[in-house]
TrEMBL record:
Signal peptide (UniProt feature, chain positions): none
Cellular component terms (Gene Ontology): cytoplasm
Boundaries of every Aldehyde dehydrogenase domain copy: 299-566
Protein name, entry field: Delta-1-pyrroline-5-carboxylate synthase
Alphabetical keyword list: Amino-acid biosynthesis, ATP-binding, Kinase, Multifunctional enzyme, NADP, Nucleotide-binding, Oxidoreductase, Proline biosynthesis, Transferase
CDD domains per record: ALDH_F18-19_ProA-GPR (cd07079)
Pathway(s) annotated for this protein in UniProt: Amino-acid biosynthesis; L-proline biosynthesis; L-glutamate 5-semialdehyde from L-glutamate: step 1/2; Amino-acid biosynthesis; L-proline biosynthesis; L-glutamate 5-semialdehyde from L-glutamate: step 2/2
Catalytic activities: L-glutamate + ATP = L-glutamyl 5-phosphate + ADP; L-glutamate 5-semialdehyde + phosphate + NADP(+) = L-glutamyl 5-phosphate + NADPH + H(+)
Molecular function (Gene Ontology), one example: glutamate 5-kinase activity
Keyword Oxidoreductase: yes
PROSITE patterns from the UniProt entry: GLUTAMATE_5_KINASE, PROA
Length: 727
């Protein structure tokens, strides 16, 4: 994909004066009628810019199309039945323009008047611009209007233009409203030109072609020979060809240009925020960081190809890659910590929530811990190609079910840079290609960790095995690649997980919430209960397996154990909220919802009747993540363990144990609450699928005639024995 450019820096100076051009396809809808909702949203954005102090100049197409629609209607009303049977003549384009101009301006006046903004109609012709005095007067008039916060609305006056066929004649100083917008941007010394179209921007081919790719930054030297244009707009005059020509002229005249969709909400505002929408044209684009000819698809395909090279290595070679990565992390600990400190400082300065900053920090000893987990993973049995089941299908026909990598994984995670290391090591161990997108708050940490890891991967496999996605704008493109990417694992907020699940056909593995419970039964050991409850909440409050709700048997209120538990939490700075029963008895604020993940030193407390009440509460308000019971009654414990339908259920131990490393998986890519494929901490096993390998001696089906099926289970040899025996 193209290397990301900070668009706010692409503008030569602070943007003050903006020219916005809306095309016919944006202004009008079906039948040539005004697209009222779409145009209204654009007017709203322009009015807001105007009130924020920007100088806004609007160039609007659509008059001819709107006039044609109105004249056709008038023609229909005034026609007899006999007239309608005759061939209909094409309406005069100039007449359409004259009728449409007044209608279009009437709409703009009505719409902007509702927002307390004044507009002025500015009809110009190509011949006018040949007059130097006209140009000077135009500049002075527009300058005076902008000073009074008036928005000039320009359109070519097609009704009196000397051009014989406005749709076909492209001679002159300008030849359509795209080139008019570029001319005005140069003439009026604008800081930015935005051309709104009916597509997202400039593509390498027709936008309807699935192989076409959006060009984020246009480099004339690179792209002018590569682009294949589709048919021009059926509604307007020039289509994308005209827009590109106008954009290049303006850009090389010193005006940055963005071509983007007028259909998408808030695109104008997004452009001004420096977000990567549409296609940027800039005279210095060729001088910026090199443009890499890698799209989202190319990155995913490269990861798949590298993963196949990884799988072709011996088990020992794959193991050594992990050991080299562990060593490289330790050797680069100082620089990793320095980059992480910069991320943490920036997050604190930006006012991020305490829980997010806590997840961002790589504490002392973290690198050593990560290296240890990678070495543990390296020493595990090689998961690739294990024979899981062996069957004699018929005499001399042997079938094996073997473990196999999934393919290419896309992991989207927030805040925690250590997640990058865990995920990358698991991908390598399981033979998968990997695309990673971390949160912007961990940008420096992720970049250095990615570099350290990929530098340790031998060239025979290639660093493209693990791709780092640096722009959030790439995610929608990646989520469309269901033919290349095999699994998406989002690690982050409920909002992140839900957005990804709703935006892709690719299978998604993960959990949206970590509403974890600890239920303290009446038969608990008090000291044990205090230790477990305190650890579950305080060991790492921001973790997804931290306790968010404490459930207590009603009898513990009467014997004082509840108060001891509450004191143990409050003494360590935990803010408590109560359910309907607990809030009044403990004199603490009532929780707004039981289904809330605090991710901080806070939790909810509620009193329940018994273990069945606790189970019902967990099923109603939990997230099927990790839940725990503290009790000495083995019968009650078994009821809880059997009936609580969560990914991990624990007896007399902290919820914090639900972790890939602590479970002995080496590491984890996340914790899944799904019931399909993998559940709980997802380690190497969760990143594998199966393949079937059949070995025969020339057998054919032939309608199953003459085949004697035996379907006999055969012993599966251990890998070492199989190798010794030459299998």
């Amino acid at each position: 994909m193209e290397e990301e450019i900070d668009r706010s820096r692409a503008f030569a100076k602070d943007v003050k004066r903006i020219v916005v051009k809306v095309g016919t396809a944006v202004v009008t809808g079906k039948g040539g009628r005004l697209a009222l909702g779409r145009l209204g949203a654009i007017c709203e954005q322009l009015a807001e810019l105007n009130s924020d102090g920007f100088e806004v100049i609007l160039v609007s197409s659509g008059a001819v199309g709107l006039g044609r629609q109105r004249l056709r209607y008038r023609q229909l009303v005034n026609s007899s039945f006999a007239d309608l049977q005759k061939p209909q003549t094409e309406l005069d384009g100039k007449a359409c323009a004259g009728v449409g101009q007044s209608s279009l301006m009437a709409y703009y006046e009505t719409m902007f008047d509702q927002m307390d903004v004044t507009v002025a109609q500015m009809l110009v012709t190509d011949s006018s611009f040949r007059d130097k005095d006209f140009r000077k007067q135009l500049s002075e008039t527009v300058k005076a209007m902008l000073k009074m916060r008036v928005i000039p609305v320009f359109n070519e006056n097609d009704a009196i233009s000397t051009r014989k066929a406005p749709y076909k004649d492209s001679t002159g100083i300008f030849w359509d409203n795209d080139s008019l917008a570029a001319l005005l941007a140069l003439e009026l010394k604008a800081d930015l030109l935005i051309l709104l179209s009916d597509v997202e921007g400039l593509y390498t081919g027709p936008p309807s072609d699935p192989k076409s790719k959006l060009i984020h930054t246009y480099v004339k030297e690179k792209h002018q020979e590569e682009i294949t244009f589709g048919e021009k707009s059926r509604l307007g005059r020039g289509g994308m060809t005209a827009k590109v020509k106008a954009a290049v002229n303006a850009a090389y005249g010193g005006i940055p240009v963005i071509i983007t969709s007028g259909y998408a909400a808030e695109n104008i505002a997004k452009v001004l925020k420096g977000l990567r929408v549409g296609t940027l044209f800039h005279q210095d684009a060729h001088l910026w960081a090199r443009v890499v000819d890698t799209t989202s698809r190319d990155m995913a395909v490269a990861a798949r190809e590298s993963s196949r090279k990884l799988q072709a290595l011996s088990s020992e070679d794959r193991k050594n890659i992990l050991l080299d990565i562990a060593t490289a992390l330790e050797e680069n600990e100082k620089i990793i910590k320095a980059e992480n400190d910069l991320d943490v400082a920036a997050a604190q300065e930006a006012g991020y929530e305490e829980s997010l900053v806590a997840r961002l920090v790589m504490k002392p000893g973290k690198i050593s811990s990560l290296a240890a987990s990678i070495r543990q993973l390296a020493e595990m049995e090689d998961p690739i190609g294990r024979v899981l089941k062996k069957t004699e299908v018929a005499d001399g026909l042997i079938l094996e079910k073997t473990s196999s990598p999934l393919g290419v994984l896309l992991i989207v995670f927030e805040s925690r840079p250590d997640a990058l290391v865990q995920i990358a090591s698991l991908a390598i161990r399981s033979g998968n290609g990997l695309l990673l997108k971390g949160g912007k708050e961990a940008r420096r940490s992720n970049a250095i960790l990615h570099k350290v890891i990929t530098d340790a991967i031998p060239k025979t496999v290639g660093g493209k095995l693990i791709g780092l996605v640096t722009s959030r704008d790439e995610i929608p493109d990646l989520l469309k690649l269901d033919d290349v990417i095999d699994l998406v694992i989002p690690r982050g907020s409920n909002k992140l997980v839900s957005q990804i699940k709703n935006s892709t056909k690719i299978p998604v593995l993960g959990h949206a919430d970590g509403i974890c419970h600890v239920y303290v039964d009446k038969s608990c050991k008090v000291d044990m209960a205090k230790r477990v409850v305190s650890d579950a909440k305080l060991d790492y409050p921001a973790a997804c397996n931290a306790m968010e709700t404490l459930l207590v048997h009603k009898d513990l209120e009467q014997n004082g154990v509840l108060n001891e538990l509450i004191y143990a939490l409050q003494a360590n700075g935990v803010t408590l909220y109560g359910g309907p029963k607990a809030s009044g008895k403990l004199n603490i604020p009532e929780a707004k919802s039981f289904h809330h993940e605090y991710s901080s030193k806070a939790c909810t407390v509620e009193i329940v009747e018994d273990v069945h009440g606790a189970i019902d509460h967990i099923h109603q308000h939990g997230s099927a993540h990790t839940d725990c019971i503290v009790t000495e009654d083995s019968e009650v414990a078994e009821i809880f363990l059997r009936q609580v339908d969560s990914a991990a259920v624990i007896h007399n131990a902290s919820t914090r144990f639900c972790d890939g490393f602590r479970f002995g998986l080496g590491a984890e890519v996340g914790i899944s609450t799904s019931r399909i494929h993998a559940r709980g901490p997802v380690g190497v096993e969760g990143l594998l699928t199966t393949r079937w390998i059949m070995r025969g001696k020339g057998q054919v089906v032939d309608g199953d005639n003459g085949v004697a099926y035996t379907h006999k289970d055969l012993p599966v040899l251990e890998r070492t024995k199989a190798v010794e025996n030459g299998h």
